[in-house]
Amino acid sequence: MSTVDAPPSSRASLPLTAPRLPTWAPGLVAVVAFGAAGLLALLLGWGIPAFVALTAVLFIVGLPLWSASIEGRRGAVDRLMTSLVWTAFGVAVIPLVWLIYTVLSKGLGEINGAFLTYDMRNVVGDAQGGIYHAIIGTLLVTLAAAIISVPVGLFCAIYLVEYGKGTRLARWITFLVDVMTGIPSIVAGLFALALFVLIFGPQIRFGFGGSVALSLLMIPIVVRSTEEMLRLVPDDLREASYALGVPKWRTIVKVVVPTSLGGIITGVMLAIARVIGETAPLLVIAGKTDSVNFNLFGERMTTLPVYIYYSFTQPGTVAFDAPPGAEAPGIARAWGAALVLIAIVMALNLLARLVGRIFAVKKG
């Protein structure tokens, strides 16, 4: 009767645990890197950007080296990649934080009731003035552009996903949409100007022309975002609806679109945020005025980006009794208008999230 030989004693089993750095190790390395970079920056007279860059480099190099001596090569690579990801995140966030801080510090002092409810009609010199006419123009022009773009973009995306798979027309539409995505905004403004000049004459300047120009920039974004959201809807939902005898158009209206409605609304809001700050096409076709204009189809109409542009290029003169270093009144108004524009974009994004949550398909 034979017996199975026992494994040799020299064969060691693999350990289930490995040495790890303590949880406070990244913080300690960050503190050491901060101190070393600060000392070196003081000795060499470097500025804040060089100090921040050196701190990041010391942290990225120091933590993986320490990890390599304790955790091994795999742990060191993991620490290095994690440090690079966090560094890239910081590089992306720093300009955003700096931008928000600059706009708040320079524009918050201008925001008051008069600034939001008065226009620039008959405002001379350092008088207060306001942006009411620019706010109205921005909302009306952008709303009209959305009314034009959303149905066209939505129906185009539905055709590409639900009806035109593999057809030559769908391929051509996809190609043209990709081309339109990269069209410069000034080209869209020149197209709208040329279109309406042929119809109404060379002196035409009105808000609806700006809406048409912005719609050329919005439509490709709406098409691409909506198309991607519709493709994410599982085919099982479509097939289940067809199995119940529901026609295709009703399946799209009742199943496909509601399922992807949250993503579609987000795409539309991104398109609006993309065009609401455009200046060049509106300078070309919508023009500029100092008065409030509620009529998109008559006379010129000012938007917030155009108002900011003219406030910077034509800031006025500083008052004689102004303190040293005071800015021209137009510069202060421009910062205030920029803050209001950012607030409008933020409000639109919050509204999109709320609407998407309300109309999202209920789970469970």
TrEMBL record:
GO terms for cellular component: plasma membrane. GO terms for biological process: phosphate ion transmembrane transport. It holds the Pfam family BPD_transp_1. It is a multi-pass membrane protein. It is found in: Cell membrane. Keywords: Cell membrane, Membrane, Phosphate transport, Transmembrane, Transmembrane helix, Transport. GO terms for molecular function: phosphate transmembrane transporter activity. PROSITE patterns: ABC_TM1. The keyword Signal does not apply. SUPFAM superfamilies: MetI-like. Belongs to the binding-protein-dependent transport system permease family. CysTW subfamily. Part of the binding-protein-dependent transport system for phosphate; probably responsible for the translocation of the substrate across the membrane. This is Phosphate transport system permease protein PstA.
